[in-house]
Design a protein that fits this description.
The complex is a heterodimer of chains A (470) and B (265).
Chain A (H helix, E strand, L loop, with lengths): L9 H14 L5 H10 L4 H9 L2 H19 L7 E4 L6 H5 L3 E4 H11 L5 H9 L8 H11 L12 E4 L6 H14 L3 E3 L9 H22 L5 H25 L8 H14 L3 H20 L11 E5 L10 H9 L1 E3 L13 H5 L12 H12 L18 H11 L4 E4 L6 H4 L2 H10 L4 E3 L12 H14 L4
Parallel strand pairs in A: 1-2, 1-3, 3-4, 5-6, 5-7, 7-8
Helix pairs in contact in A: 1-4, 3-4, 4-12, 4-13, 6-8, 7-8, 8-9, 10-16, 11-13, 12-13
Chain B lengths: L2 E7 L3 E8 L2 E9 L4 H16 L8 E5 L11 E2 L2 H12 L3 E7 L4 E6 L5 E6 L8 H11 L3 H7 L14 H13 L4 H22 L5 E5 L6 H11 L3 E2 L9 H19 L1
Parallel strand pairs in B: 1-4, 4-5, 6-9, 9-10
Antiparallel strand pairs in B: 1-2, 2-3, 6-7, 7-8
Helix pairs in contact in B: 2-8, 3-5, 3-6, 4-6, 6-7
The chains are: A alpha/beta (470), B alpha/beta (265).
């Protein structure tokens, strides 16, 4: 790793940067401009979020709180758990632990820093992770592994992931973290389908084992009153997410493109916590105002195209992907990360057996609830089995593309994403057969060195033009 | 005094070195030809000419490089990692870590006190950490490889380049040229992309002691200086000979040892 990268602790630097940005709107215009002069590299993303109004500011506050929690965890006697976005942090909050969600940290670093997470990704390769592993883990993992270089990141206490079979590169990244840092590791397992009683029971039993593991290594017993509080907050959040998702269906959609990103960022970082509820309330307020006025969430007010991302978004520096959509009048009608499959969502009703409900009437009901919720997280839900099996990637994408009235479908991922790359071409073929022009992006959502953002942008423009979409 | 030779047939260039009593008396570098034996003959002919001797004067010759098995005039072949280690130690007796960037691969090795290669690592895939990458990029930019190396110092805002695939990187460079980005910024981006990939490899063997670089890319100041920043250590420059001939030199040094051994037996 470059020596200068070792001069500052990554988590401290990122946390303080986000906290400072969250305070920028409190200043006068002159003070704000002055602050921007001192943060030349962070300015563009800070401006983008601050210009998005209260939701952007709430998002900055939320993210700075996320880092603050990591930085103060050990001083407060809490354990830090490395985990994945495929695993809901709600259970960890219920057990008074602090999650570090690798993919979120990589995405934030990629958008905030000019050089993205390149140095940390490369550090992973230096210590032995293959370059072809998924960059979404490699970025944050590099920073976390940097703890061995003298404290680039707070030391993690345990590793929990739930991706064997869902995404083996993801599972291997967490196995690597556990081995390299010599920390206890639990891999939650899933059967290949979750529809019948036998597989449901298998999953719940394994989920209970995960709780036992967390209790053992944190010294905290699961407090069911606390779990009930967390799940009640999730219930509120789910209702607001359902409202936002419904409004995404409107034409023009009143939801600004950046809200999609904030929606799932909040869910992966703060599911069941007040911080996310505040963000959702703020996004919902603006979206409702737009809907009432019948206006598009796009800044220029004109929706020219409705784009469905069938996998993940692009996390290039300065939120350039969002700017690209805004400039061209492209409405972002969601991705695999946006949807949560709560039983009150319209698309979930189109896929019987795909959703979860919330029941806090007893400890067993709560455990069942949180296990079922976990089994509906992105990738776990629909990338786990054969892509064209009922309820899996193809069916889910077709239903969403139809319900949200997509003009086109875009695939974006990372070269390390074996589970989607393995089937993306048949997937694209099948989407085309159903009448959706489909484009496969050959970049890396987290690493502009695979394909520069400029080249990605040109390829997207070319697709929109040739297919007569714009 | 016996005269020995080393011949390194690489993918981009072929080199020959002739030594007498531990001194280089002739050397030559050519651009590799399609057939390895033709490259070897041309490189050796050039070295013989510069040494002012004939082929018959050579008592022992060792071949190395990717085309080594096809060289007809050698007595023996030795791996290029071993030859580069040997050549590097001769050029810089204190060298403990050696980085060799060849035309189609990149290697880093650690030497023990006797100059033998201990731990080593080599790039396992793409061409973007190799000399070929720089050659392709220099061609697109319309500059020589030497000029490309000097562009980094003049850059104001180096570009970020796709560095996983040479062909995509080339497409990026063309795009930047067409959009009017200064050539210095593109050149610096190319040198950085190259250095970043090499740095991963170098750091993976945990470089210690004096670091020395061999191969043609060692002459690219932009890559070397960026690499120094990335690994946080200074890379010692070659004074005694051209770093590009290190492989052939190492082969000649091994030939000298073998020649002496044969004489004794």
């Amino acid at each position: 790793m470059r020596p200068e990268m070792q001069e500052y602790n990554y988590d401290w630097l990122m946390g303080k940067t986000l906290a400072t940005a969250a305070r920028v709107p409190l200043g006068t215009k002159k003070e704000t401009e002055l602050t921007y002069r001192y943060i030349p590299y962070f300015k563009n993303i800070a401006k983008t979020l601050i210009d998005a109004g209260d939701p952007g500011i709430q998002a900055l506050k939320m993210m700075s709180q996320y880092y603050e929690n990591i930085l103060t965890a050990h001083a407060q006697g809490k354990k830090i758990v490395a985990t994945t976005f495929c695993n809901s942090p709600a259970i960890l909050y219920a057990m008074d632990m602090v999650p570090v969600t690798f993919e979120m940290l990589t995405a934030i670093g990629s958008m905030v820093w000019k050089r993205g997470m390149f140095d940390y990704m490369d550090f992973c390769c230096e210590v032995g992770m293959p370059e072809t592993s998924c960059s979404s883990q490699r970025g944050a993992l590099g920073a976390v592994l940097g703890a061995v270089l003298g404290g680039l990141f707070e030391k993690i206490d345990m590793v929990i992931c739930d991706t064997p079979g869902v995404c083996d590169t993801n599972a291997n990244a967490f196995a690597f973290a556990s081995e390299y840092l010599d920390k206890p590791f639990f891999q939650l397992n899933y059967p290949s389908s979750i529809g019948d009683d036998r597989s449901q029971q298998y999953h719940i039993d394994d989920y209970k084992e995960m709780i036992k593991f967390a209790e053992k290594h944190s010294g905290n017993k699961l407090d069911y009153d606390r779990l009930a509080e967390v799940l009640s907050e999730v219930d509120k959040q789910d209702a607001m997410i359902a409202d936002l998702e419904d409004m995404l269906m409107l034409k023009p959609t009143p939801v600004p493109p950046v809200f999609n990103l904030l929606l799932y960022a909040g869910r992966f970082c703060f599911s069941g916590r007040r911080e996310f509820t505040l963000l959702l309330e703020s996004m919902l307020k603006i979206t409702k105002e737009n809907a009432a006025a019948g206006i598009s969430g796009l800044k220029n007010g004109e929706e020219k195209l409705r784009m469905f991302m069938c996998y993940i978004d692009h996390y290039t520096v300065d939120l350039n992907f969002c700017h690209f959509l805004e400039e061209r009048g492209i409405a972002h009608i969601g991705s695999i990360l946006t949807r949560n499959f709560r039983d009150n969502n319209q698309y979930a009703q189109e896929m019987p057996g795909s959703s979860y409900g919330i029941d806090i009437s007893s400890p067993d009901a709560m455990l069942d609830t949180i296990a079922q919720m976990n089994a509906r997280l992105p990738m776990v839900r629909s990338i786990r089995g054969p892509y064209d099996k009922k309820g899996m990637w193809l069916e889910e994408s077709l239903i969403c593309a139809k319900m949200y009235d997509a003009d086109c479908v875009i695939y974006n991922g990372t070269p390390g994403c074996r589970n989607t790359w393995g089937m993306v071409k048949p997937f694209a073929r099948d989407m085309e057969k159903h009448g959706y022009p489909t484009h496969i992006m050959y970049d890396d959502a987290f690493d502009d060195r695979v394909e520069s953002w400029e080249a990605t942008r040109e390829r997207l423009d070319e697709f929109f033009k040739i297919r007569g979409l714009l | 005094m016996s005269i020995v030779a080393g011949c390194d047939v690489g993918s981009l260039t072929s080199k020959a070195v002739i030594m007498k009593a531990g001194r280089i008396i002739g050397s030559h570098i050519i651009k590799s030809k399609p057939r390895p034996q033709d490259s070897a003959n041309a490189a050796l002919d050039g070295a013989l000419l510069s040494a002012g001797i004939s082929k018959e004067d050579i008592q022992y010759c060792i071949g190395t490089g990717y085309g080594r098995e096809k060289i007809e005039f050698v007595d023996e072949v030795v791996s290029e990692i071993k030859c580069h280690g040997k050549g590097a130690r001769w050029m810089l007796p204190s060298a403990e870590t050696v980085i060799d960037i060849g035309g189609q691969d990149c290697k880093t090795m650690k030497l023990d006190k006797d100059g033998n290669v201990g731990r080593f690592a080599a790039n396992d895939k793409c061409a973007s950490g190799t000399g070929r990458f720089l050659e392709v990029m220099a061609k697109v930019l319309g500059v020589s490889i030497d000029e490309l190396g000097k562009l980094s110092a003049k850059a104001k805002e180096p570009i970020t380049l796709a560095s996983t695939c040479t062909v995509w990187a080339q497409a990026d460079v063309i795009k930047y040229i067409n959009s009017g980005v200064p050539i210095e910024d593109i050149g610096a981006g190319i040198n950085t992309a190259m250095a970043v990939r090499v740095a991963i490899l170098v750091n993976s063997v945990k470089p210690e002691g004096d670091i020395f670089m061999t191969g043609g890319v060692a002459k690219n100041i932009g890559v070397v200086e960026t690499l120094e920043k990335l690994i946080g250590k200074r890379i010692k420059r070659a004074r005694k000979a051209d770093p590009q001939i290190a492989g052939a030199l190492g082969a000649a040094l091994i030939a000298e040892e073998r020649g002496k051994r044969e004489k004794t037996s």
